[in-house]
Amino acid sequence: MAKRNIKLILEYDGSGYHGWQRQNRETTIQLLIEEKIRIMTKESVKLIASGRTDAGVHAFYHVCNFITSSQIDPPSFKRGLNALLPEDIFVKQAEDVPIDFHSMYDTESKTYEYRILNQEDPDVFLRLYSWHIPRHLDRDEMRKCLSLLCGEHDFSSFKSTGSGNLNPVRKMMRAEIHEPGKGLLHFIFEANGFLRHMVRNIVGTVVEVGQGKIGFNDFVAIFQAGDRAKAGIKAPPQGLFLIDVRYPGM
Amino acid sequence: MAKRNIKLILEYDGSGYHGWQRQNRETTIQLLIEEKIRIMTKESVKLIASGRTDAGVHAFYHVCNFITSSQIDPPSFKRGLNALLPEDIFVKQAEDVPIDFHSMYDTESKTYEYRILNQEDPDVFLRLYSWHIPRHLDRDEMRKCLSLLCGEHDFSSFKSTGSGNLNPVRKMMRAEIHEPGKGLLHFIFEANGFLRHMVRNIVGTVVEVGQGKIGFNDFVAIFQAGDRAKAGIKAPPQGLFLIDVRYPGM
Fold first, then answer.
1. Three-class secondary structure of residue B134 per DSSP
2. What is the largest distance, in Å, between two alpha-carbon atoms of chain A?
3. Radius of gyration of chain A (CA)
4. Of A91, A146, A199, A247, which has the fewest CB atoms closer than 10 Å, so is most exposed?
5. Are residues B72 and B143 both part of a single domain?
6. How far is A42 from chain B (nearest CA, A)?
7. Quick check: A124 and B92 CB within 8 A?
8. Rounded distance between C-alpha atoms, residue B146 and residue A146, angstroms
9. CATH code, B218
């Protein structure tokens, strides 16, 4: 039987999961979807993903793919998986792609959004979808920090301490703050790749500048030091959303 | 010690609770708050509420009050209760009110919002906060139904079958549909009081008109019949939000 390569576009609420990646004994999103594909295809498949999200992190647009010999057409994959998956994971699209498409290696850019609720009172409906910071944040100072990040840089200062010896150079295309109202701040980051916890480490450090705990010059020094130990705190996971993944010519 | 009457304005996500009212062995919002007040005041208090919400129903603005001999000032009640309560319940305000204020009997009007997501695909982030209806709903036909409801009427057709012999006449001041975009329909109902499940029964029946399952004339007949058995289905709880409670001169 000819092999096919199926690409899935997913949306999920990460609140109830131990992140994307397969782990022992923990319920992960990857594990659940692989299990449902196995039910549909009678094959054991391995999902390749555009990236991994940590526990509590969400996705409006996550891309993954798998190789199968199944004859099931893409709309039936979408319908069938959505019937089998719990309500907090949704397959927005399924499609046949070239057999050599790889949702991780072929990525052109990924975009993350980090949501902060910056007002005195919390919002019970946003507790799983934002980081509540009661104290006022200085938007101008934070924007100055973000403007430094665009372009090709060594992001070692913002990588997780346990993230190994990967090349720490990434190209950042966008680093912006949007203010949609109601006390919300949406940080948007688009880059050709992200180091582990990079968005959360950047946001945590930029917030310290916004609070006046450290100055803009300190931020510059932290960024240039290339040393994670010098940077600020890691922002909590529930404010983070993967919102786009782009591939060349797709 | 002089008795005081404390009014609380609450916000809560009802997803994790068996509704507002105290029940045996079930976790209800009333029970939790009474317990936290007892911890603060060392008194056993009875919370009086502007109304009861069912399991899964939410509130942006719920009013309750309790009588106490405690000397704790209102800001300390707000701060203390919020420190003790879980993150899905929030006390927005606490204030001293006249000793004879009663949050249920003194109500001038209450406003409910019912949220429907009317698009083919569901939204994982709205699954606990809306009713997903994939099939297109005819807004004009639904608005015709709602316009009938304003004014003083016998709402027996939309009361829950087990709701007893309360006077079924209520005065509806507003019955509207708002369209904030992204496939959302927000039904707004303001009345001087609501029968049990009245909003959900109205929405369920109006949706049947919107889907073309029954016609506008059928809706008129159902409303006039005064018989719950003739009406449509009851809309699910998770789309319902209590959004305002008004008192004369407050």
1. coil
2. 62
3. 19
4. A247
5. no
6. 27
7. no
8. 49
9. 3.30.70.660
Q: Where are the beta strands (DSSP E) in chain B?
A: 4-12, 48-49, 58-68, 89-97, 109-117, 131-132, 151-154, 169-181, 184-191, 240-246
Taking contacts as CB-CB distances below 8 angstroms, the residues of chain B near A90 are: 121-124
Asked if B88 lies within 8 A of A121 by C-beta distance, the reply is no
Q: Please, which residues have CB within 8 angstroms of residue B165's CB and are 6 or more apart in sequence?
A: none
Same domain, B79 and B195: no
Distance from CA of A216 to the nearest CA of B (A): 33
For residue range A131-180, list pLDDT tens digits in order: 999 999 999 999 999 999 999 999 999 998 766 667 899 999 999 999 99
Number of domains in chain B: 2
* Residue A103 located in a structural domain: no
> Looking at chain B, which residue has its C-alpha nearest residue A241?
B125
Q: What string of pLDDT tens digits covers the 250 residues of chain B? A: 789 999 999 999 999 888 887 566 677 899 899 999 999 999 999 999 988 888 889 999 999 999 999 999 999 999 999 999 999 999 999 999 999 999 999 999 999 999 999 999 999 999 999 999 999 999 999 999 999 999 999 999 999 876 666 789 999 999 999 999 999 999 999 999 999 899 999 999 999 999 999 999 999 999 998 877 777 789 999 999 999 999 997 6
Same domain for B198 and B77: no
Tell me what ipTM this predicted complex has: 0.90
Put simply, the answer to whether A90 touches B121 (Cβ < 8 Å) is yes
Write out the residue range of the structural domain in which residue A31 sits.
4-97
Q: Are A157 and A197 in contact (CB under 8 A)?
A: no
CA angle, corner A176, sides to A174 and A179, nearest 5? 150
Could A124 and B13 be called an inter-chain contact, meaning their C-beta atoms sit closer than 8 Å? yes
Distance from B245 to chain A by nearest Cα, in Å?
Answer: 19
| pLDDT tens, position by position, A29-47 | 998 999 999 999 999 999 9
The answer to whether residue B224 sits within a structural domain is yes
- Residue B104 in domain: no
Find which of B113, B119, B121, B124 to mutate to test the A interface (most A CBs within 10 Å of its CB): B124
Same domain, B93 and B142: no
Expressed in angstroms, the distance from the first to the final Cα of chain B is 27
Taking CA–CA distances from B78, the nearest residue in chain A reads: A121
B54 is catalytic: yes
> Is B58's Cβ below 8 Å from some Cβ in A?
yes
For position A25, which CATH number holds? Answer: 3.30.70.580
The answer to whether A123 contacts B11, with C-beta atoms less than 8 Å apart, is yes
Choosing from A97, A132, A153, the residue where a domain stops is A97
Please check whether residue A129 touches B, CB under 8 A: yes
Burial class for B150, CB neighbours closer than 10 Å (0-12, 13-18, 19+): middle
